[in-house]
Structure formats: structure tokens, C-alpha cells
What we know:
CATH architecture of the largest domain: 3-Layer(aba) Sandwich
Number of domains: 2
Helix content: 40-55%
CATH class of the largest domain: Alpha Beta
Strand order of the largest sheet: 2-1-3-4-5
Bound molecules: cobalt (II) ion
Amino acid sequence: MTDPKQLIENNHAWAAxxxxxxxxxxxxxxxxxxxxxxxxxxxxxxxxxxxxxGLGPGDVFVHRNVANLAVHTDLNMLTVLQYAVEHxxxxxxxxxxxxxxxxxQAAMSNTDFGQINPWLRSIKDTYRAHAAEFEGIEDQAxxxxxxxxxxxxTQVRNLAETDIIQKAWKAGQSLQIHGWLFxxxxxxxxxxxxxxxxxxxxxxxxxxxx
Length: 210
Ligand code: CO
């Protein structure tokens, strides 16, 4: 399917199906949103956010970029995060990586990607910080898989280290940051058990007097 007109037809059919089940669905949606989840995922077309969680419109606030990064200088990510945490009061932030991630694979290579280089740079830093864990792993797919997981854990920590998250915790807001992995071969999500739920789990250098 390559014709964009077909997409609009699909959309109209989709809206009609939802409205058939619930005539007020879109009228209610137009009144506002109160999602409980912020999803930070890869831009990869194979990793849908809302659909993969079995949820629908209004349920998930979504931010996606190449390799699901939460870089502390990225104003785009920080804007999404602040809005989601301060205004929408999401209760869970989910960083979801995925196997065979092109961004992670690119970061593992020595190829010069031009404009993409600075974006991939922090993934290389994560590799360097965990270089010992890669020793003895020869298989490239296994190496990528390990870096995908380490990258997710790094982003969970990056988020917890922001003033945005720390202020929310200080204010007594219940907020957990999760690291998940989406497996392309099965469509299933796995909890990598990297959840951070409070400032006590931060290293002291990253704790802010918020
Ligand atoms: Co990816």
C-alpha cells in the first residue's frame, strides 16, 4: 500500500468503527487528555507504542526518536517530559528499546553518519562505560542486544536524574520510570527490571536540592 489517499480512507473507516462502538468517543476525547503513561520509544516503524500496549487514543503520551534516547540536553524530550509529568501527572514513564535497533547498530559501527553522529554519540558512551561486559561476546547480534539493554537502562537513569522527575518526587507525586524491551520476533514486551521509583536510587552526585 503506497497511496496516501488510501490512508485517509483507512482513517475514516477506523473512526467509523470506533464511533459505532462508542458514539461519544471522539466528542469526549476532544475535551482533554489524562494519560497515565509516557512512552519514550524508538522511531522504528516496527515498534508501535499505544497499539503494542493494547491501549487506545488518550491512553499514552508518546515521544519517539532514533534509539529511544533521553539525552539531558534534548529540549524536545525535556519539553515532552515536563508536560507529561507536571501537567498530565503521568504515573509511569516507560523507556522501551527494541532488538535489532538500527540506531544502536549504527552507534556500534565506525561509520561516519554526518549529522547523525552527535545523536548516536551517547550510545557510544554507554558502550564505553560498560566495555568490560562486551568482552568475550563475539556474536554481533548478541553484542547489539546487550547494548540495546544497556542503552535502555541508561535512559531510565538519565530521566531520573532530571530536575523534572526529582521535583515531582519531592512534591510527593507517585512516579516510576521503567526500562522495557520490545522483541520484534514475538511482539512481546519484557520488563528489564531497571525501574527507578525515587531519589534514593540516584547516585549522590545526581541528587538535586529541588
Ligand atoms: Co530502534
